[in-house]
Specification:
By secondary structure, the chain is α/β, with parallel strands linked by helices. 35% of the residues lie in helices and 20% in strands. This is F-box domain-containing protein.
Length: 353
């Protein structure tokens, strides 16, 4: 076939139309279409098609070979999720500390790292102390970092990592407690002031020193932080006290209260929330006890809400998680709902567990 008549020589207008058609294709079909020619391949790796595409590195033994293929890719950036290998039993954490499992960090990863903008560790991966610092230190363009249930020594990790200047989103889910208060994680030394989204999960009272460091982080990033999620983080009342006077422009706030001590303080926590004057458009609250008056107070305070979710928690079939369902409180609630002209999504109910 004459080269002048190949798909690769189509006019720009036709390629733009193909790009539009690609928007309607599922990922597996778009991958097939990308093999037609170089022009179609370039269309398939446009940022709008890669935004939700995450490459999963599931079996650590062959990661080196897989990443070696991606070093030849013309993609403008990469998003990786590192999963554990198959477990021997459901309760056994995966031990991936063997040297052979992580040699790719020192060989192949530096070639890819400048293009990596999203990185996620997930599912109880157990790693040596020096692995994560080595990986993060050569990934300067990282915008999203998620560390979920990773078994490692956070002190050594975070003390060895330079500040991630490009980081915009951080999610940490702690899978264990620390034995000594001196194991301070020093998150403040890693997170840039321009962090926009922070999500922290599963912090108990035993991690009090980490919570204190977390408060410093929120204060440090307060001028840029737009989304804050505190899920099953104890000492919620103390954290709200530290944030109430911060001049934050939070657009989203997600608070899940599980600890019985914090649940008993829900009225005080709600009172502190009402004093913040954050320009919230998305508010999600979860606890074992809410009152309908709390919901009305929230609606009367945050007038720009577009999404509101308030869920109590109950073991029974009754609405035990949300109390105070008198005629007066429900009438007030109805008026408060009607006053929110921007509201698009509303949930007031009970989570069963």
């Amino acid at each position: 076939m004459d080269n002048e008549n190949t798909f690769d020589k189509l006019p720009v207008e036709v390629l733009q139309m193909i790009s539009h058609i690609f928007e309607f294709l599922k990922l597996k079909h778009r991958k097939v279409a990308s093999t037609v020619c170089w022009s179609w391949y370039h269309v398939s790796i446009q940022p709008r098609f890669l935004n939700k595409e995450v490459i999963c590195l599931k079996y650590m033994n062959n990661v080196h070979d897989v990443l070696n293929i991606y070093t030849k890719s013309l993609r403008p950036y990469f998003a990786f999720r590192i999963l554990s290998r198959k477990k021997k039993t459901e309760d056994d954490a995966v031990d991936s500390t063997e040297k052979d499992c992580w040699d790719w960090i020192y060989t192949i990863w530096p070639l890819l790292a400048p293009k990596v903008t999203y990185l996620e560790f997930f599912d109880r991966v157990k790693i040596k102390d020096g692995i994560l610092p080595a990986l993060l230190s050569v990934t300067p363009q990282l915008k999203v970092l998620k560390i979920r249930r990773v078994k490692c020594n956070y002190k050594k990790i975070l003390h060895e990592v330079n500040r991630l200047q490009s980081l915009e989103e951080l999610e940490i889910e702690y899978s264990h407690t620390f034995d000594h208060p001196e194991d301070d994680t020093k998150l403040l030394g890693v997170i840039p002031e321009t962090l926009r989204k922070l999500c922290v999960k599963s912090l108990s009272n035993e991690n009090k020193f980490i919570i204190e460091d977390l408060i410093k982080v929120i204060t440090f990033c307060s001028s840029h932080l737009q989304s804050l999620e505190l899920l099953d983080v104890n000492m919620t009342y103390e954290m709200m006290q530290s944030m109430v006077n911060l001049n934050m422009n939070l657009r989203k706030f997600d608070l899940c209260i599980v600890n019985p001590i914090d649940c008993a303080r829900v009225p005080k926590i709600i009172s502190l929330l009402l004093k913040t004057q954050w320009p919230l458009v998305d508010l999600r609250l979860h606890a074992s006890c809410f009152a309908y008056d709390h919901v009305s107070d929230i609606m009367d305070t945050f007038k720009d809400l577009e999404k509101l979710l308030v869920s109590g928690r109950s073991e029974s079939e009754t609405l035990a998680g949300i109390t105070g369902s008198s005629f007066e409180s429900l009438s007030r609630l109805t008026k408060s709902i009607n006053s929110l002209t921007k509201l698009k999504h509303l949930f007031i109910g009970v989570d069963r567990y």
